[in-house]
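Appendix B. One record, verbatim.
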Amino acid sequence: MTNVNPQRSKEPPQGQLNRLSPCLLISLSLLFLLSCSAPKPASPTALPKQIPLAATPSLHPQPTIAPAGRGLSGRLLFSAGGDVWAWEGERGQRLTQSGDAYQPALSPDGAQIVFVRRSQSATDLMLLHTSSSEPELLLGYTPDLPLGSLDRVYQSMWAFYPIWSPDGQSLAFVSQYGPPYGSPASDYRLGLFSMPAQRGGERTMYYTDQSGQVGRLAYAPDGSGIYFALAPDAPGVARIYRYDLASGEAGEVPGIPEQSYDPAISPDGKLLAFAARHDTKTDIFVLRRDQQSAPLQITHNGAARAPTFSPDGKQLAFLAASGNTRSFDLWILDLRTTAASISAGEPERISFDMGIDADSGISWGPQNENRNP
């Protein structure tokens, strides 16, 4: 499949409107469905669950306790209770207290965090320096209009899943060409966008697809392309694609099964991890990109997603729910690769009953010394 916008057009692409109303779109959230107790995992989308009219401060999650002596290298970011958390060593620390912060991503040097702030009918991209406790607005889509008003609906837009380019100079994210229009209100498809990693930078539309919505992103380590999940309209199934920055084209990644999403790339670019539905379960798989072998299934609990590699590529972190609990928690496992094979150690649970937001995923990067404790 090729990019429908090979020239990175700034004009609205034909056929890219989603005729569903914003309220119905919100109710289709993967986050909401995946957190339900039904055994069948939800199909991935890039849409949020219905949220309160006004954000409220989150409650402090249960204590975070890692196994003795099992400290993690670097810094892991995730969202729990509507706040951004950082895990370092054997403990987690809450970085925000707004109750509306999701999908954090750590910059390549570990000095900055970008995350999504959600409100009614809109989201903003926020930037938090690790040496500061106050985030700043990076990209604002939330209009200053009364909650629930029709005017607010027609001036609101979405931004999701921000990631940093390998050089830290730009951000890729999921967004729309423009706000809703028509009657009833129609939304543009969620597509792939980019912008400089600074406020006021002009955004560029890379890719949209008339048949579905773009989901979670992952940058190729060499900066040559961006991997993304595409959730098409029924009866289509989710797949993982790669957008080539040089040619402006996108194509399906070979060797990956249907119903796959949440792509993650190892630091050396040789391994592609992803979540995939099989039967009534969702587990983590790893594909060796330099071989024509089948993906290796590395989790077997049937409720795992959002893989991410450690900065040295020797470990993989992911989120999973275990037993009778509906709480997603942080897990890790060791990876062993040779010239001919890849194998994984036994998964180890790191956090307990934190209720981590699975749709926000995990970002794993280096520590930064110039930060507040």
